[in-house]
Every structure is written in C-alpha cells, then in structure tokens.
C-alpha cells in the first residue's frame, strides 16, 4: 500500500520573517536585507560574540562570508511559539579565509546549528545562534577530535 506524502507547509508570519535571515542574508549574501528585516537595535548572541545593531550584525555576517565564501545555511526544521521561532539549520562552507585566527585550510565544513529568533513588530529583534563549534573546529583541524 502506497503512503501519501504530506506536503511541507508554507511558512507564514513570524517563521517567514525568521527564515529570511539564514536563507537570504547568510546563504545568498544579501547583507543589505538586514535593514529590512531586523530592528535597528537587533541583538545577536553567538559564539563569535554578542553584537547589537544592524551595522555590527552586517559586519559579523560579512566577516563570516569572507571566511567561508560559499557559506550556506539550510533550514531543516522550524517551530514557532508566540514571538519566537526555533530553527534547526545546517551550516556549510569552504574555509578559504581567516576564521577565529585560523588561517585558511581549504577544508569544507558541515555542522548543525540551533537558531532561535525573536520577532517584535514584524522585525527580527533578537537572535541566539548555537552552532556546533567543536565539530567545526575539529573539521578545520584546529582541535583534536574527542575520544569516543
């Protein structure tokens, strides 16, 4: 007996706004979109440091894309609860620029990332970005893999 597949729902409301950051800003490099979808005093928490404001966020994302020129962020799952959207994202890229004082290795990395985005008045007000930094640094050869 063949099973019918359930179509993936089209994101609406807060999820649609939140998804634009990984899909269009991070993956496509549309840094200018930050002005359209982020609050002026947007607050971003990540292992790279906490930044506040559109200009600092643009600089952080631009730096990431300079370190991984083919950087992409693929949204795998998203769940919305009130004003917050939780997303499971896969990050990929080739390390061809300095990243966290690590000289370019030419290695391709792929890591999981948990991204929580708070929407306020139709704009991204706050983001919490939690990539698998140990996995990334291990793939770059900057740290030894953990013992099994």
Automatic annotation (TrEMBL):
Pfam hit, one: SnoaL
Name of the protein described by the UniProt record: Ester cyclase
Species name: Haloferax marisrubri
PANTHER family in UniProt: ESTER CYCLASE, POLYKETIDE CYCLASE SNOAL-LIKE DOMAIN
Recorded superkingdom: Archaea
Gene3D superfamilies: 3.10.450.50
Record-linked InterPro entries: Cyclase_SnoaL-like, NTF2-like_dom_sf
GO biological-process terms attached to the record: polyketide metabolic process
